[in-house]
Amino acid sequence: MKALDYLLCAGFAVALPIGQLLFKWAALYQAQIAGPMPWKLLKNFPLMGAFGWYGLTALVWFYILTRTPLSTAYAFSILGSALVPLMAWVIFKEPASWKFAVGYGLMLAGFLVILQAKPS
What residue intervals traverse the membrane (predicted)? Predict the structure, then answer.
């Protein structure tokens, strides 16, 4: 992989948890909107933003896959998965424990092992 490929994959890994934060924000916003469900969905602008964000990230993902093997690129999703609970703890004050930290530490160790693997 070239440096640009690593940069694109890392950017994608950060983009995914941002999308999750947008969906959480939309869920919280949904509770504040009155009316029937279809109306609430149409008025939920954070939800529309989350859908738009995921649309853009899907295009970036497609571009990444034109340059990088799926097995390598997908490993970067581990980084994004590790960021979601951390961001939820910081932004939404959701509970976290040392067990989360240990589990995600193991995931990150696995990520480093995957990056060292040579394709056969």
Answer: 7-27, 47-66, 73-92, 98-115
